[in-house]
Amino acid sequence: MNTENRYPVTASLFMLKEIKHRQEHVNRGYQLLKRKAEALRIRGRQAASELASTQAILGHTLREAYISLAAIKFTNGESNALVLENIGQAQVRVLRIPENISGVSTVSLQALEETVGIGDTFRYAGLGAGGHRTGEAKKAFREAVRILIKFASLRNTCILLDESIRTTLRKVNGIEKVIMPKLRNTENYIMMEMDEREREDFHRLKMVKAKKMRSQARANKLRQDNKAGGAGESTEVVTPTAVMAANTRSVECFTCILRCNSSLSSTTDSGDFNKPICYPHNWDDDDLLF
């Protein structure tokens, strides 16, 4: 197995348990990241749809506000310098509300209109002519500011969610394509090595057992041969019949020797050397000394 597709570990039961423990944690993290990615996608789609609708409404509101501003300029003339000179405290403020979307921290912007304690400088503007159009322009621009704040909040949320979705999907793909195959290959490698060691140990034990059995069989055979040989020698020595037979053969041999000596002396005295010499019947040629 290629070592690049697995972790460099030693094949043992401890490492096998450790790899299985890691696989459980990785699978749990993989499932959590997939759920997080799905939740972020759903929330991102909702934010994108709200952003598109808000963008369309914002365009329409700004167009109406600038049309009303053009009507004021037509009736009252240029009033930008007057407006800039009489700017006081802001009547529309932005409230930052932190949100947590599946572990992603975002900020939601909300428009707050404060009218208590703040005097409107242009409350009596346009009394002589065009007062109605001035009020409509003020309302249109306030609505445009409110929608613009909502649009900015949704756009910021979409950007953060898009980055989080990319990061989460990158982690999910890394776990699925790199980490989990490496862990599986490592587990397979450890199992193969342990099986191979088990087969080697089993074969070694079989060889040792066969050698022991051969040595025991050889020892038993030698023991039986020794018992059989010892039993045969003891019967030859102890049996009295064998002793009597040996004594009888020795007496007969001695008698034959005497008879042959007497016949030899008689033949030599008479001068006849053609008669055969009598030897014991149980002597061979190798027993003769002459």
CATH architecture descriptor text of the largest domain: Orthogonal Bundle
- Biggest beta sheet summary: 2 strands, antiparallel
Average of the residue pLDDT scores? 77
**CATH first level of the largest domain: which class?**
Mainly Alpha
Supply the number of structural domains: 2
Number of strands: 2
Region (Disordered): 216-235
Organism: Chrysodeixis includens
InterPro entries: V_ATPase_D
GO molecular function, one term: proton-transporting ATPase activity, rotational mechanism
Brief digest:
It contains four helices and two strands. By secondary structure, the chain is mainly alpha-helical. The protein has two domains: 196 residues, Helix Hairpins; 52 residues.
Q: What can you see in these coordinates?
A:
With 290 residues, the chain is mostly helical. The chain folds into 2 domains: 3-198, Helix Hairpins; 239-290. 72% of the residues lie in helices and 7% in strands. It is built from 4 helices and 2 strands; from the N terminus they run ααββαα. It has helices spanning 13-76, 80-85, 131-238, 240-270, and strands at residues 92-101, 104-113. A two-stranded antiparallel ribbon has the order 1-2. A hairpin with a 2-residue loop joins β1 and β2 (104-113). The longest helix is centred in the middle third of the chain and has 108 residues, at 131-238. It is rod-shaped, with a radius of gyration of 61 Å. Mean pLDDT is 77; it is low at 234-238 and 264-290. Residues 216-235 are annotated as: Disordered. InterPro entries: V_ATPase_D (IPR002699). Keywords: Ion transport, Transport.
